[in-house]
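I would like you to sit down with the record closing this message with an eye to the fold:
=====
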Amino acid sequence: MKRFVSACLASAIALAACSALAADKEIAVVVKTVNSTFWQNVQKGAATAQKEADGYTMTFQGPASESAIADQVNMVENAVNRKVAGIVLAPSDPDALVPALKKAWEAKIPVVLIDSAIADAGKQYYQAMLSTDNVKAGELCAKALIDKVGTSGKIAVMSYVAGAGSEIGRVGGFTKYIKDHSKLEIVGPFYSQSQMATALNQTTDVLAANPDLKGIFGANEPTAIGMGRALAQSGKAGHITAVGFDGNQDLQGFVKDGTLEAIAVQGSYQMGYLGVQTAVKLVKREKVEKAIDTGVVLVTKANLATPEAQNVLY
């Protein structure tokens, strides 16, 4: 009996040691949602970086939807509690994630943000941020719209989650550029909560209520897909200038058939790849840049097949 107890105790100690070792080498990647090809492309990049990082493992998590902010907070807190080596996080809300990041900082777990910023109160709790310059990306979309529709008339803005860091910069940059460089009237923004079906219904309503609409902007992947489908179903595809954001197969198809004039495509694979790579560097106490721009490419029918576009499309 004593031998049995001793054996069990030894096994428990060994298991605990293995678990601790696993956590010590784990990079926890927590994104806004797993139900989006954009974030799945981030996962591909993260997985590649993990394979290149000797001895490190990776977990990849995200809520069912971008609006499930409490679920994302729990995922980060769970990663801290299991004492992971590092965290790569795309925060869905700039304020709600601050307490969880503080816990990571207190536990001496390095944090790398991707895609979206955190509130100023949390800036000391992360060591690097990799993202598109969302203000410039929004400006790029606004310029593309003005170039096509002119400087007067009415346009609509279809957005996603109000208050998300990327949304603030992207839609803020778009609307400011429109106001500074034209007399276009802006209808919206309307918030889809990053749900394609919601964006489709909202866009259908906007098109019906504004028959004189000249242009429309869809500010992220599911929103732009819903917007494109609403344009196609209403028979207004090609008659209203539409600019979208992100670059999955659906959106590429809309560019090819003329439903969308252009899409602004982020380096989603690069966010995942460089996010994990940066986290590993931080664990190893190597120096990294605090802010890293992962870029954006404006893709149109004219440049869709070019290497520059193909490198970011997914």
